[in-house]
Design goal:
This protein is of the alpha/beta class. It has a domain at 6-116 and 190-261: Rossmann fold (3-Layer(aba) Sandwich). The protein contains ten helices and seven strands. It has helices at residues 30-34, 63-76, 89-100, 120-139, 142-149, 160-170, 175-185, 213-225, 241-244, 246-261; strands spanning 6-9, 14-19, 40-45, 82-87, 105-111, 204-209, 229-234. It has a seven-stranded mixed sheet with strand order 1-3-2-4-5-6-7, with helices on both faces. α3 links the parallel β4 (82-87) and β5 (105-111). The two termini are 33 Å apart.
């Protein structure tokens, strides 16, 4: 089992494992983790194919492989249990982790994330689309890929300055590694977790931006499946709540994690 590249902050306190989205890296969480205060120890990893977690065995570029790598990383740090915070793809992985390794997860904070697609027909269609994107990453113009990615309706609520900043950060990725991640950890390749939500043991908060109607609906659907799941809809924000409403995001995360410390 391989571990992941990571950064840490905070010498002690309750561990919080941060999982970024597609094309992200551990540094995406710097402002959020710094705002948690002295009562928390933040561990932000680079997921397989991102940052410095490159050239891993093929099996690492899957939900199961990435979850096992996260476990290995916690083991190396001597951490038995942690709370998890994940965005988009990282949120899907966090939920997978919480269901497969429930004894290692204290609390679960998901931003704009889902339990996957409900039917095999939907997954087949999505895998085809992800494969087309993966081939473009391997053979096409990476700059054009980044421009088109952030022109998707999902990111329509981001202003031009934010988009330019995100594209600049994403240029540091290796396209061939991103292609591996997309094939193995894309929504089409992920097993559906909808029917497993009733088995969730960790308290979970699903956060979605008010303007991101798709993920607002998904969050509400998850809450209907389990009494362990609460939702929070952030006014005026779209898919990337952390970027669009950082103050509100930090407040929600801090209060959710502090509630766990009181129990």
């Amino acid at each position: 089992m391989h571990s992941l590249s990571y950064t840490t902050s905070g010498a002690g306190g309750h561990p919080v494992l941060f999982l970024h989205g597609f094309m992200g890296r551990s540094e995406d969480w710097e402002g959020i983790s710094a705002g948690l205060g002295k009562g928390f120890r933040s561990i932000a990893v680079d997921l397989p194919g991102h940052g410095n977690s490159l050239g891993l065995p093929e099996e690492a570029y899957t939900m199961e492989g990435a979850a096992n790598a996260a476990i290995r990383t916690l083991d190396e740090l001597g951490i038995e249990t942690a709370s998890l915070a994940g965005y988009s793809m990282g949120g899907r992985l966090a939920l997978y982790f919480a269901l497969r390794f429930s004894e290692r997860c204290e609390r679960l904070f998901l931003e704009s994330s889902s339990p996957g697609l409900k039917t095999e027909e939907e997954r087949i269609v999505r895998r085809k689309a992800d494969e087309e994107k993966a081939k473009r990453l391997e053979t096409g113009d990476f700059e054009a890929f980044l421009e088109e990615w952030y022109r998707m309706p999902l990111f329509a609520t981001l202003d031009d300055g934010v988009v330019k900043s995100l594209i600049e950060k994403r240029r540091g990725n290796a396209p061939s590694e991103l292609a591996k991640s997309l094939r193995g950890m894309g929504t089409g390749s992920q097993p559906s977790l909808w029917e497993e939500l009733e088995n969730l043991r960790a308290p979970m908060l699903a956060v979605a931006g008010e303007l991101d109607r798709k993920f607002v609906s998904i969050a509400r659907g998850m809450a209907e499946r389990s009494s362990r799941i609460s939702i929070q809809i952030t006014p005026g924000a779209g898919h990337n709540v952390r970027v669009e409403a950082p103050g509100e995001y930090s407040k929600l995360l801090g209060e959710f994690l502090e509630a766990g410390k009181l129990k």
